[in-house]
Design a protein that fits this description.
Layout: H1 28-42, E1 49-53, H2 61-64, E2 68-71, H3 77-87, E3 92-98, H4 99-105, H5 107-116, E4 120-126, H6 161-168, E5 172-177, H7 181-193, E6 197-203, H8 216-219, E7 221-222, H9 231-239, E8 245-251, H10 263-266, H11 268-274
Parallel strand pairs: 1-2, 1-3, 3-4, 4-6, 5-6, 7-8
Antiparallel strand pairs: 5-8
Helix pairs in contact: 1-7, 4-5, 5-6, 6-9
The structure holds thiamine diphosphate (TPP) and iron/sulfur cluster.
Length: 277
């Protein structure tokens, strides 16, 4: 789908009137731009979209969009989103997270969301650090990254989110860079349109606690190989890459988890009765 396609919507239709409080230069500004551009190109009314998140700088995104939103608890956005999507399959569900929220406290939910394959799009703004809580190492932090909070580095192997998504059954897997707004927008459009659980890792610099990540604009590069529909092949590629290849890696053919609106969920009065003591 062309990002310039005229759907009658512009990215401004998906922005709220709340000004982001991110640090100047934070990569998440660009992610927000890409999301609103992608939604405009998809042409769905804001009230048909739900943006769900956990806690973290990146998880502030629902408040900055004009769609329905839920700023949930740390690490639990996928559980919330899956519940919403199975009971309201008519909604387009986007889930926004950070590498701490998504791979540390939310790591177990990540595995099972990939397995379950509910039709939604999971975006992780990966800055390889806990931004909101002032710079602790995260699961994707390099083992030799030194800071006052991790003198000498952690020495721990980083979590490999793309490989783990592939091994667990995600149906669409991609990596983009926040500074590449066109590439990120196009990838998000594809991710939303692809049935099942789509996972997009966006390398999004934390300029405050990882000023070294400003260099990412020189380090990232487009993957030289085409996407594949074989998870094993995609996993081998990503295991041996330098961590900065961007593009769609894998597009699978799994059937999404069935959604079903039961009478209980459809009628709030019946739902209330279910909880009566
Ligand atoms: C249950 C719980 N544990 C810990 C916290 C503290 N906490 C808030 S955000 C955060 C990590 C944020 O890092 P990340 O998800 O990578 O997002 P970023 O801020 O870097 O975008 C932590 C540990 C919390 N809010 N709730
Ligand atoms: S602390 Fe880092 S992730 Fe958080 S707003 Fe600032 S630059 Fe962005």
């Amino acid at each position: 789908m062309n990002i310039r396609q005229n759907t009658g919507y512009s990215s401004a239709d998906y922005k709220s009137d709340i000004n982001p409080i991110w640090c100047p230069g934070c990569g998440d500004f660009h992610v927000l731009m890409s999301i609103t551009k992608a939604l405009a190109a998809l042409g769905k009314p804001p009230e048909d979209i739900a943006v769900i998140s956990g806690i973290g700088c990146s998880s502030r995104i629902p408040a900055y969009t004009n769609c329905y939103g839920f700023h949930g608890v740390h690490g639990r956005s996928l559980a919330l989103a899956a519940g919403l999507k199975v009971s309201r399959p008519d909604l387009t569900v986007l889930v926004m997270s950070g590498d701490g929220d998504g791979f540390s406290i939310g790591g177990n939910h990540f595995l099972h969301a990939c397995r379950r394959n509910v039709d939604m799009t999971y975006v992780v703004m990966d800055n390889r650090v806990y931004g909101m809580t002032k710079g602790q190492p995260s699961p994707t932090t390099e083992p030799d990254w030194e800071s006052a909070l991790s003198p000498g580095g952690t020495g721990i192997n980083p979590f490999q989110p793309l490989v783990i998504a592939l091994a667990s059954g995600a149906n669409f897997v991609a990596r983009t860079f926040s500074g590449d707004i066109k590439g990120t927008t196009e990838t998000l459009i594809e991710a939303v349109n692809h049935p099942g659980f789509s996972f997009v890792q966006i390398l999004s610099p934390c300029v405050t606690f990882r000023p070294d990540e400003r260099e990412w604009k020189k380090t990232v590069h487009k993957a030289v190989v085409e996407e594949t529909d074989e998870p094993g092949r995609a996993a081998r590629r990503i295991m041996t890459d330098d961590g900065y290849n961007t593009g769609i890696l894998y597009r699978g053919k799994r059937t999404p988890y069935p959604t079903h609106v039961s009478e209980t969920f459809a009628d709030p009065e019946i739902l209330d009765c279910e909880f009566e003591i």
